[in-house]
Amino acid sequence: MVPEIHRTPELDGETVHDWRELVDQDPDGSWFAGPDWVLAWWRTLGAGQAGEIAVWRGPDGRAEAVLPLATARLRAHRRLPVEVPVLTLLGTGPGAADHCGPAVRPHRRAEVAGWLADRARRETLWLPSLDPAHTGLLPPGSRPVARTACPRADLTDGPDRLGSRDFRAANRRAHRRLAAAGLSFHWLPPGTAEPELLDELLRLHRLRREAAGGASSFTADRLPLHRLLLSQAVPGRGPAFQLARHRDELVGVLYGFRWADRFAYYQTGWDPRWAADSLGTALVDSAIRSSAAEGVRTFDFLRGDEPYKYRFGAVDRTDRGWLRPRGPGGALLGLKHLLLGGS
Question: Where does the BioF2-like acetyltransferase domain lie (predicted)?
Fold first, then answer.
């Protein structure tokens, strides 16, 4: 069956609904593989980029598989003015998306894999941060060249079972200290936050990064994407926030995405004056408890193997970047990743 191809982010409501349902009903479904992220990214950070969304429909007309693709150009090396054309996943690149890939019913997987192999037969295929559930869709000749650990915590047995006994006791002491100092925590579920909160998140994120002496890709030029996501939020789906306030002052924000029974912890910022009181850990602990109270069963810390994530009992789900090179440009990208030690 030949899929229908959409070359604009302006999809009809039924297709968007079906796409969301595919992601929600897939136990490996990802926020970053769904229409909310992909279409908002295309309208903002990816504005002007050539994209195509392949949709396979069943006999009843409902979407049974959705594969969002884009054509892009990658720098072969940061010091060389050489760009290589690639076919990639729409919604990846700037914005730091994890667990990327299509949304596919099991009985459509072979058909989607065959179509992708034919679509990419003459082009270099670059699939970054591909969720391991989708490796069976890769064309022959694809090889892993990058890996990203994405720890996640299982909340099935509740937040009080996460981590060691000593770690849980330390969290309780931190919460008591913070409460005694006048701090309180507040949860804002999807559809309840104001756009100005993103500016506060960015301000606190900068404070924390400056204190830690590190760089970050979460900068002001990313905010149009997140403002659009915020404007589209509805109860149970979209951006959610865990706040920490010291009396009337906002001193901490944790930001992520809530959908189905999952929460993806995307970014945080907090005032480093509270570092000695473990505000960062308490903020994460509060977000876990708040999301669990709403029925979340998987708390995904997303990319990065920072030790604190594993103290919450998180276990890695590893994304990989896959390259299927074509021509001299593809060979150059392959050499780049080989020199970087990709696997």
Answer: 166-309
Q: Which long-range contacts (CB under 8 A, 24 or more apart) does 48-53 make?
A: 49/90, 50/7, 51/7, 51/9, 51/90, 52/5, 52/6, 52/7, 52/90, 53/5, 53/6, 53/7, 53/11, 53/90
Q: Are 287 and 183 in the same domain?
A: yes
Q: What would the pLDDT profile of 179-225 be if each residue is shown by its tens digit?
A: 999 999 999 999 999 999 999 999 999 999 998 888 888 999 999 99
Taking 3-state DSSP, the helix, strand and coil percentages for the chain, each rounded to the nearest 5, stand at: 40, 30, 30
Is residue 215 located within the same domain as residue 281? yes
Query: At 25, which helix (H) or strand (E)?
Result: helix 13-25
Rounded CA Rg of the chain: 21
33 plus 139 within the same structural domain: yes
- Tokens for 265, please give them: 């912890």
> Are residues 144 and 9 both part of a single domain?
yes
Question: CA–CA separation, 283 vs 254, rounded Å?
Answer: 7
Whole-angstrom Cα distance, residue 99 to residue 186?
Answer: 28
* pTM above threshold 0.90: yes
Residues in the chain: 343
Q: What is the mean pLDDT of residues 139-153?
A: 96
Residue range 82-100, pLDDT digits in tens: 889 999 999 998 888 999 9
Kindly state whether residues 216 and 265 are assigned to the same domain: yes
Q: Is the domain of 161 the same as that of 248? A: yes
Under 8 Å between Cβ of 228 and 46 = no
Same domain, 161 and 204: yes
* Structural domain count, the chain: 2
Residue type, 283: L
DSSP assignment letter at 183: E
**17, 144: one domain:** yes
Is residue 302 in a domain? no
- pLDDT in the model for residue 336: 82
Structural domain boundaries enclosing 239: 156-296
- Dihedral of CA atoms 29, 89, 8, 261 in degrees, nearest 10, equals 10
